[in-house]
Amino acid sequence: MADPFTIIGVVSSIITFLDVGYKTIRLIRDSGNGTLPEIETSALILKEIQMRCADIKQNGSGAKNASKYEAIIIAEAKKCEQLATKLSKILDTLNKKRNTPLEGGRIAVYYILKKHKIEDLNADLKVIYDGMMKNMGLILQQDCNSLIMSELKSLKESQNELNISRDNDLDNILTEILGYTIKTDAEPTEIERDHLKTCLSSLRETANKERQRFKIIKSLYFPEFQRRWGQIPDAEQRTNTWLFNECETNFVNWLESGNGIYWIQGMAGSGKSTLMKFAAEHPKTQRALKHWALSAEIYHPSFYFWNQGFEMQKSQNGLLQSILYQILRITPSIATQVCPSRLSYERWQINELKATLKLVLEQKNVRAKFCFFIDGLDEYNGDEEDLVQILEFFVGNPNVKICVSSRPRIVLDESFQQRRHTLIIQNFTAKDMRTYVTQKLEPNAKFKKLQTSSPFACSEIITQIASQAKGVWLWVFLITRDLIIEVNRNEGVPTLQKVLHDFPEDLESYFRCIIEKIRPNHKEEMAQIFLLTIEEVQPLPLFVFSLLDNEKSDTDYAIKAQISSLSLKAVQMVDKDWKARIQNRCGDLVIVGYEDHPVFLSHPVDYLHRTVGDFLRDCYHEELTKLAPDFNPLVSLCKMMLFLLKGLPEIRVQEQESITRMIGIVDELLYYAHESEKRDQQAESILVDVLDELDRVNCHHVRSISNHWTHIRDSPTSRGFDEYREGGNCNFLALAVQARLVKYVRGKLQDNPKHLNKGGRPLLDYALRPRRVTPLAMPYHSQRDDSIVDQDMVQLLLEHGADPNQRVYLNNGWTVWELFLVSCYEATQRSKPSSSIKNAWYRASEILISYGASPTHSFNIGPESLSVPLVLERVFGGTKAGNLQKLPQERRQLSHTKGWLSWIPIIGSFSR
User: Fold this and answer.
1) DSSP 8-state code for residue 651
2) How far is the C-alpha of 372 from the C-alpha of 363, rounded, in Å?
3) Same-domain pairing of 420 and 454
4) Is pLDDT above 90 for 384?
5) Are residues 204 and 247 in the same domain?
């Protein structure tokens, strides 16, 4: 793609050429006074003329799709070549006359004879300059189609779209250049020409800087950034104001002078998120923080964890990326300082985010203080120990403090017991609840009539709601909504009292009540929908639920479906019907969003509140399975993902977004297939046909590439000496090994044992080092402490002939066993692995050694020579490493003993 600022290069080259032209004419004029030009000077000028003409030609050819006025400038630039020829001839003539007698007199006579041509050249230079500046003025003032202005407009719109702060540098430079376009009366001075070139250079340089900053900030942005924030209701008028009352809480004092962590705790549904949103955005918070920051800049980004949401709403990546985005969009000038070479489509890694954020927090050029507002720590989709590390990372900086909210969490409580202020939200909300109910009911004209006739009874209803809520705002919201429905239907006080009396005392009872009200003929489909939402990796688009009808008609619908882009019009019609059906089958327990789904389609279906998902998963799962006894949600999800994969728009291999969408669906399907294999009691995979079809579909989607489609996925980044090289030989079976689909892989190897022998990385290496780059963080480790290495997969491959001592030429000729040890060693060097992961490594090591891997030989790793025993000791500790080293000897002894024992029956027979 041509640089939109190529035209700037053309103009700069023309101005430089004009400089040389004026210098040449000045030289000729001096010669006319009898002064001989130095040969070196004239030679340098000739060379400069040639160079500038080449620049103009090159830049002019690069300015493709130029607008009308830009094209005129390029045409004017071509006249410079004609002038260059004339100037060169005059200089050549002057140089030749040096070798004749009476040089000075002859040159003077030559100048007199050519004076009018020389002055004409001077006038031509002025015409080119005036024409160029006139058209530059037209470009800057009215040519919206010009390359320059289109680029600047696009850059401005992009910055506005991501809410990136802009300074006036570009506008000031444009104004200054525009000023030169109206100064065309007199010949431009050398100082003016130099300053104009500086302005043009600054325009290009500043625009390129802003483009690079935009790419960096865009790489941090993700569509779900404010999705949870938008779902959190704003605090009702006159509620939550107690937070800033210094007689009731110490929140203001902490904002003004405190440090560490301010912890807002409360039970489920107690209004923590609403309070956090209220606190983060309130003007009093900003004033108090300015008091703390003094003359420093203050930044107070916020993040709202949402466990039922998409990956970036519940992960470390989402938290760190969101905070970094919010800071850099306000101060884009430091973006290129903290990450100068970041591309907009590159996926951020945790370590990279931490390192960049550390640079931001320690910036010397900007005096700043930071107060982060992080809601819903208990909704983080991972180990609480990870959260402890993140919070330690933040509060370890003296310029940072954090306000967080969560349900009570033991690990978090113990880790920060001495460095926090705690506020229990339900101790403060009873008065607010009464205010909320009053504000919802009293404006209703029909309720006003009831107040007139029964003031005490109406007041008592409001008081009872506040007292019965037990600090749970969601309960207040739900009962108030039901009361308003009855009021609008002209029901009297007795009915309202009955609604309040009969309303379940806790949320779980309320959810059961909602489910019981679903019509019996919808219960099975309701159960299927809820079972899908329990198992889903992230909220599904509404259209996906319509595929339940397809599955009822034909269980192989996804396999038989054609590979064809889904019609947007057809999807919209389905969505319209299914929005009502979801409501009929699930009541108010799920909501249908209006926004796009981050992977594909739109209208993500989500729970009313996290407590709904908790209830369905923990308290009602058995009832759901009884209502839909033959329904397998994981298998159903696999088929749904396959159908979506077939319905994707055309895959463009060069477009990261297109590839990411495809790989996202693939990885989600593979996750559901893995979960299905784990829970299914059958020896064989029930998803062979679905997985084979997945491979076929993607081969079709990316048929333009020469390698197998699995190569469009980026290789994992190297971690020290732990590198991942494919050698162009990755295939679907290798991906199935990485996805830990043991039953599927077993079936493929039984059908054709030759599948084990592939080029590039051996399958056993994929099993021992299964890392892969994926757009989605699957809950392999967050919902269960599930190990990375699948021991069953390792055992399976070894049983089918895999060799742990096979050398991998792609990785320095190290064996598969050595590569596994290097991977474990590097992981241990970076951080402390969990006990389950280390146990899985140990078990895999036992299996590998039992199949011939040597626990005693040596190999080099970098500057340090590490033997296998030393690596085993550093990874597992001395005792376990020693046990592994004894295994070969123990097995030999056991084998020898078994050999002797086998003779005992024979010896006994002789004795008889």
Assistant:
1) P
2) 17
3) no
4) no
5) no
Question: Alpha-carbon distance 384 to 373, whole Å?
Answer: 18
Nearest to residue 555, comparing CAs of 642, 623, 621, 647? Answer: 642
Query: Cα–Cα distances in Å, from 124 out to 9, 18, 419, 878?
Result: 21, 10, 77, 87
Which two structure tokens, joined as six digits, stand for 494? 């007795």
Domain assignment of residue 752, yes or no: no
CA nearest neighbour of 323 among 309, 302, 350, 342: 302
pLDDT tens digit string along 766-806?
A: 999 998 877 766 665 455 555 689 999 999 999 999 999 99
Helix (H), strand (E) at residue 374: strand 368-375
By DSSP bridging, strand 864-867 and strand 858-861 are antiparallel
For residues 362 and 306, membership in a common domain is answered with yes
* Maximal C-alpha separation, the chain: 141
Over 60: is that where the pLDDT of 350 sits? yes
Residue-by-residue DSSP string for 871-909: HHHHHH-HHHHHHHHHHHHHHHHHHHHHHHHTTHHHHHH
User: Same domain, yes or no, for 485 and 434?
Assistant: yes
Q: In the numeric block, which tokens belong to residue 319? A: 């938290």
The whole domain housing 113 covers 6-217
Spatial separation of the C-alpha atoms in residues 772 and 754, rounded to whole Å: 24
Backbone angles phi, psi at 412, to 5 degrees: -65, -40
- Are both 195 and 323 inside the same structural domain? no
Give the pairing of strands 261-265 and 297-299.
unpaired
- Is residue 413 within a helix (H) or strand (E), and if so which, with residue range? helix 410-415
Q: Are residues 191 and 53 in the same domain?
A: yes
Amino acid at 693: E
Q: Which pLDDT band, with edges at 50, 70 and 90, does 352 fall under?
A: confident
How many beta carbons lie within 10 A of that of residue 443, not counting itself? 9
Tell whether 421 and 469 lie within a shared domain. Answer: no
pLDDT at 536: 92
